[in-house]
Amino acid sequence: MESLGPIQQKSATEATEATPSEPSKPSKPARIRILDAAHELMLTLGLSRTTTKEIARAAGCSEAALYKYFASKEELFIRVLHERLPRLGPLLERLTAEPREHSLEENLTQIARQAALFYEQSFPIAASLYADPQLKRRHDDAVRAMGAGPHMPIRGVAAYLLAEQRAGRVQPDADTYAAASLLLGACAQRAFAYDATEEGTPPPLDTFAPALARTLLAGIAPRDTGAAAADAR
């Protein structure tokens, strides 16, 4: 093999010194990698077609390692919803604790915006379950056992509206659960109901959320024209 001459040896040495190898960056913790991989696969494949084996492979770990952090695919799905998607729970807890911090209309607008974002991102993940009734039943049983499910946000909004009702900013005879169902139902429908329209896109959140809040408020705000009705707005 032909040896390098003095000049070539010097150039090689300088090149090595000029471009030292960079230290490898520490990898993300396994739990974070698993959540990231699950989120991406559930978005692209749907929940029903995503397996724990595929999630583990994408996360760069074994399936056994995945089960060290998550007991089941259902638990992993719930954690993806809580840790990777817009969260409605903390907002509802804050508003329920301090219902008079803002006007009722402002609060309802915040809820509508956050809920619409949540359903927009969660619908593509969960929609595939409805194509397999048996799988959906198993999923529902597992999620129910964890005290979770799509009914929980309705209960949360209803609890907030009940706090507003006690504060006098919602009609005494208003059905807070029905009002919560109307609000979240519209937000959930926004995630898919406009796909076949000419535009193919849902209404912008900046107009959708305030309009939904005003419309709901017209039905549940106190009927009198006194301070309570003014405060709600």
Question: How are the SSEs ordered, and which strands pair?
Answer:
Elements (H helix, E strand, L loop, with lengths): L5 H13 L11 H16 L6 H8 L3 H7 L3 H12 L4 H9 L6 H23 L6 H13 L6 H15 L9 H15 L14 H16 L6 H6 L1
Helix content: 55-70%
State the name of the first-level CATH class of the largest domain. Answer: Mainly Alpha
Task: Assess the beta-strand content as a share of residues.
Answer: under 5%
Shape assignment: elongated
Total helix count? 12
Describe the structure.
This protein folds into 2 domains: 56 residues, Arc Repressor Mutant, subunit A, CATH 1.10.10; 146 residues, Tetracycline Repressor, domain 2. 66% of the residues lie in helices and 0% in strands. About 11% of the residues have low confidence.
Features:
233 residues, mainly alpha, Arc Repressor Mutant, subunit A, Tetracycline Repressor, domain 2, 2 domains, 12 helices, elongated
Quick description:
By secondary structure, this protein is an all-alpha fold. The chain has 12 helices and no strands. It is elongated, with a radius of gyration of 26 Å.
